[in-house]
């Protein structure tokens, strides 16, 4: 059985961290093979993202996985970080962590965008891409190689919104708002459907009480120890009614699809809302397929994902949007990320 290769493109905030730990746990279980991590500005500046990714890999004893530093600025308008308290200024909740020596020497010299292009051309239709941050690296890769996405086995992305509900502005989701032009390029020019986890799914699609998070944090593992430190402010302040997971959802979907071995990015996408997921995933129980783009000019709606609900644009659907999932199975993936065992489902 061929194990799908995975590249993680990330801005390495606290939710990215647990999502990466989840992917690395699946890597160790030989369910996927993480062949690279590429970094991008977003939750924090790229030099912090690089440090955070290397800290995760060091914690997981997987520093052999190459890390490529990527875009430090958005495509057109420079993104100004609002100083929001969810990730802190360094992306890791401003936790007091020991310094990581020789960070620069552990990074690969090649730019992330060139690494993405070279890897997908080296392994055509073998790589699943987890896009967990702003889409600057991906947009640049598409501009340099318009066929870039056609060489991928699948794209699993956290970003955008389906109802105009924002989390960084009143109407835009963070990853898309960090670089709306990049999000527009990727959505408009992708050559395969994108498996999208929108903000609404993160906020309302699964309800995980903080008590459940605290229970998972009691596991005796290096991953749990690091996550408890960098999420301490989130757990303490309880900004949301439940513990919010974002990038973890996208990565769990990717892993579950890889495990079922039914991923087919060349299939015809049904445009009916609420269809069962088309990639064989047991985790995601229903999806919505549609064409969507990104608003760039609205004074109040810049960065918002605009869905062609009535199919007036005449465009082929470019998104497969997660609309519901098996919460019990998802909790197993989260426990695995914290260092616990993945309980096999009864067949």
From TrEMBL:
Give the matching InterPro entries: Inosine/uridine_hydrolase_dom, IUN_hydrolase, Ribo_hydro-like
Residue ranges annotated for the Inosine/uridine-preferring nucleoside hydrolase domain, each copy included: 6-330
Instruction: List the Pfam families hit by this protein, alphabetically.
Output: IU_nuc_hydro (PF01156)
Reading the lineage from the top rank, the first entry is Eukaryota
Q: Which GO terms describe its molecular function?
A: hydrolase activity, hydrolyzing N-glycosyl compounds
Q: Can you tell me which family this protein belongs to? A: Belongs to the IUNH family.
Return the protein name: Inosine/uridine-preferring nucleoside hydrolase domain-containing protein
Record organism: Cherax quadricarinatus (Australian red claw crayfish)
């Amino acid at each position: 059985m061929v194990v799908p290769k995975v590249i993680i493109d990330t801005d390495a905030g606290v939710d990215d961290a647990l999502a990466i730990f989840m992917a690395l746990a699946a890597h160790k279980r030989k369910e996927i093979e993480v062949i690279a991590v590429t970094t991008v500005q977003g939750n924090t500046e790229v030099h912090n993202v690089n440090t955070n990714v290397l800290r995760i890999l060091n914690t997981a004893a997987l520093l052999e996985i190459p890390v490529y530093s990527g875009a430090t600025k958005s495509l057109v308008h420079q993104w100004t970080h609002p100083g929001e308290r969810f990730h802190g200024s360094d992306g890791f909740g401003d936790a007091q962590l020991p310094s990581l020596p020789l960070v620069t020497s552990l990074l690969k010299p090649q730019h992330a965008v060139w690494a993405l292009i070279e890897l997908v051309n080296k392994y055509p239709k073998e790589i699943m891409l987890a896009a967990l941050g702003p889409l600057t690296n991906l947009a640049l890769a598409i501009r340099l190689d318009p066929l870039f996405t056609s060489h991928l086995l699948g794209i699993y992305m956290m970003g955008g919104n389906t109802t105009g509900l924002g989390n960084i502005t009143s109407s835009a989701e963070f990853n898309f708002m960090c670089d709306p032009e990049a999000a527009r390029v990727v959505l408009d020019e992708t050559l395969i459907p994108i498996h999208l986890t929108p903000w609404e799914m993160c906020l309302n699609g699964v309800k995980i009480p903080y008590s459940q998070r605290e229970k998972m944090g009691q596991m005796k593992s290096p991953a749990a120890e690091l996550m408890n430190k960098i999420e301490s402010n989130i757990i303490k302040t309880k900004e949301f009614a439940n513990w919010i997971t974002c990038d973890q959802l996208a990565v769990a979907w990717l892993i579950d699809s890889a495990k079922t071995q039914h991923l087919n990015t060349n299939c015809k996408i049904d445009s009916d809302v609420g269809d069962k997921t088309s990639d064989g995933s047991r985790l995601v129980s229903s999806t919505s397929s549609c064409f969507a783009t990104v608003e760039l000019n609205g004074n109040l709606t810049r960065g918002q994902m605009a869905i062609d609900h009535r199919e007036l644009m005449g465009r082929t659907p470019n998104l497969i949007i997660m609309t519901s999932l098996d919460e019990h199975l998802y909790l197993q993936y989260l426990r695995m990320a914290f260092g616990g065992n993945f309980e096999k489902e009864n067949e």
